[in-house]
Every structure is written in C-alpha cells, then in structure tokens.
Amino acid sequence: QNLIDSLRRSMGEAQHHDAVAGTEKEHVSQDYRLRLHDSLVDCQKDVGNSFSQLLPIGSQALPPQEFCLHLNVSQCAITESSSRFVTTVYNPRSHEVTTYVRLPVMNGVYTVLDPDGSELIVQLVPLVNAALRSIETERPKSSATHELVFQAASIPALGHKTFYIVKSSARHGQQHSTITSSRERQSTTVRMAEA
Amino acid sequence: GERIAVSNGKLSVNFDANGLIESVVVDGVTVMMSQNLMWYAGMNEGNANSIFDDRPSGAYVFRPNGTDATPISTQATLIVQTGALVSEVYQQFSDWASQVVRVYKGQSDVEIEWTVGPIPVGDGIGKEIVSRVTTQIPSGGRFYTDSNGRQTLLRRRDFRPTWTLDVTEPVSGNYYPINSHIYVTDSEQNAGAVLALVNDRSQGGTSLKDGQIELMVHRRLLYDDHFGVGEPLNEPGDGPGLVVRGTHYLLVNPSLAGNHPVSLIRPLAQQMFMRPWMSFSATSLSFTNWK
After folding, report:
1. Concatenated DSSP letters for chain B?
2. What's the whole-number mean pLDDT along residues B29-34?
3. Which of A123, A127, A138 is the best residue to mutate to test the B interface, defined by the most B CB atoms within 10 Å of its own CB?
4. Which value does ipTM take for this structure?
C-alpha cells in the first residue's frame, strides 16, 4: 500500500496549478518530475509483485516484470536486447479495448503469438534515420533501428493480456524460405524525398 | 515535389507537392484541410504604457506580439513508410520541428506525433509553437472545448457570456484551456461536419477563424512576466532549450448523420487518456513451456 500511496501522493502534489499549467519555476518542475518518476517506479514494483502472484506456483522463478518509460522516444532496453521476451498489456479502462503496440527493436524477423498461440500480423517500421531527425538529442541510450508494431486485440476491462515475441533467428528449425516470406510480410515500404 | 497519399482503407490523408496535408478523404468524401506547425512571437520587455504596466510574455502570460502566427516552414521534407498495419508520413519542417502523421489499419482517426525543440531564440524573440488545422467548415465563430475532460463547453469568438468584451488581445483573448479535446462543427443539428483535435496533455487552444482550430504545443520565452514566477520560461537555465514530443488525434467527419460530435470524440479521448500499460519480461522458454 505504501508503494501505491507514493504515486498517489506525488500525483496529488502535481495537481497544484503551476504543475498542471507548467508555470512553476524550473527547479520546481524538475522536482515534480523526480517525485513522479520515483513514485512510478514504486508503483511498478507493486504491479510486478501482483503479477507474479497471478502466475502459477513455481513460476516465481521467472524474471521480474520490467517497465519502459521512454517508449515515446523508442527506447526500451529489454525489447532492444532480447531475442525472446513477453509483454503484458494492462487495460486500465472499464471496457474492453483494442490497441496497437509499438516496441523498439533491432532489425530482424519477429513472430508474435497471442495467449492462445495464434501468430499475429506484424509490421516492422524503420525509425527515421539520424540524418533527418536529430536522433542523438532525442534518444541517447537506444540502439533500436525499428519499431515492431502489432495489434493487441480485445484486452479485457481492467484486465491484461500477455504476448510472446521471438526474433526468428532464435526459433530453431525454421526454414530459410519461411523467414524470407515473413520478412517480406512484415516489411515497410519506405520512400524518401531526394536531397 | 510529388503528391502523396497514405490510407488505411477507412480514410486517407493527402499531401501536396510541398509535403503539407491538403485534404483528408473519409467515406469517400474529401475534406479540404491544411495543417502546419506555426509560431507566435513573444512580447518582449519594456512595453509599459499609460494603461498597462510592463507585461512581457512569460510563464503566466500568453500575449503574442502581433495578431497571427507564422508557419515554421511552408514546406516539409517527407519520408513515407507504408505497411500492413500502419502507414506513416514523417514530415521534417526544420531541424527543430517535425511530426509523424500515422493512419493505423481500421482506425477512424489520424495520429499526429509532433516533436518540437529546441526552439531557436538567437533572434532575441521568444516563441510559442502551435499546431493549426484549417478546413472550410463554416463554424460561425463557435467552437467547443472540454472542461477538465468532463463537460464540453460552447465558446464564441470575441465574446463573453456574462459581460461585454472589449477585445484588446484578439489572439490570447480567445485562448482557452484544452485538457482533452477541441472541435468545430457547422451544424447545431448534428447533421454537418466536425473537425476535432484530442490532446494528450493540458494545452491552450482556440479557433481564430471559422473551420480552424489550434493547440499550443511548446513555449520558450525570454523574460520574466512579473507575475511572480521570477524567471523566464526558458528551460534549462541558459541552455539549449527543451525538446518536447506529444500526440494529437485528428478527427474529421464530413457528415455527423445525427451523431453528436462528442460521441465520436469521447472514445478517442478515453483511448488517449487511459492508454494501456505495458510491462516486459525476458524469457528463454519456448512458447509452449512458457504458457
């Protein structure tokens, strides 16, 4: 409860008019951000604990849940570096939602399976290259070259769904031809203005 | 120099030869539209007169120097990426302003992800950046804004419901807080067209012309506005300024056909406001073993 209260408290503080309107002094805005970040991390611990309690006995040995706060600048250490991972999508709304998921990854061919093991349609979207977008200033710590896009369908109200993602080179025994056809299906056609 | 279109089967967004949006086609009906990132010049120090004491633009004061905004650029360099689930057009307006216009398969809105900053102030002028969308919808000086994401209120340009307004600030006098959405429509009977923007954070917004709405996305100002914060809105310190990124959902519907505009907007506002959380866990197990 104190983990949750930590976020509750910093959100309460952020209801101050200067936080909502962005009119606070600079160092105050940095303090708001620091408090919100630390309490988000506290809350993530609680979510991770609750999630592991949902898992069957004996699976607590699974790695803990990780969170990525920089998905908006295509930065997420675990999706960039793992060739096999699961992502759990939690729906905080009071009715079922379908949403698109975008995960920063390295180039490759990926397979995404829903909880029933059905393979989802996937698209690999290249991140706009550094030349045109001052990428270094935006995401200094990311090695991702693409974003993996798939549709997380019918997430239950106040519920979650977990998707299993594997980079094809990691799937043993997959035929080269299969990988090639998957690569084509997932690809994005890119057209750039000529300089 | 080419005309470009991206589509998701439900709607398509068309770009002109300058790389700017020129129309959106919804259910086969073309709605002419322009959209651009623009900037207002901040009011500098030393503008006291017999009526006002010194009131430069600042954290508390939006008071542009002039009565209109200027496009950051009238052209954009494009990268067009199309695929099975999403088609997106990356527009680079300058080395400090760009956006990605996305249409996802099956969605009825256009996602605009804007990235602005650091705002250059080498010319000694503070700047406030807006995203402005203009259509030909005859909205008759009326526009609608939410109030803390709850009630949607009618606003009328250059007008106050409880007193006779003397318009001294034609731009800022028509700005209102937009916490969730702003829209214009041409019909009180929910039979005409609607243009709406749904934002992902509290921003200022207005409709300065019929059929037009804008939202303020970034500000960098050079003077203390003497309202108490005691410093210019110029983070960090004297450094390079901030880069800000955010998302707007653009909703265009040429014929409401009896739907109330908010019935189309509210699902998008909830989708924006209560996005799914994601967590991750690496594994070495096969799917079957993991399941």
Report:
1. ---EEEE-SSEEEEE-TTSSEEEEEETTEEEEEEEEEEEEEPP-S----SS-------SS----SSSS-EES-S--EEEEEE-SSEEEEEEEEETTEEEEEEEETT-SSEEEEEEE-PPP-TTS--EEEEEEEEE----TTEEEEEETTTEEEEEETT-BTTB----S-TTGGG-EEESSEEEEES-TTS-S-EEEEEESS-EEEE--STTEEEEEEEEE--S--SSSS-S-S-SSTTSS---EEEEEEEEEES--TT--HHHHHHHHHHHHHTPPEEEEEE--S-HHHH-
2. 96
3. A123
4. 0.91
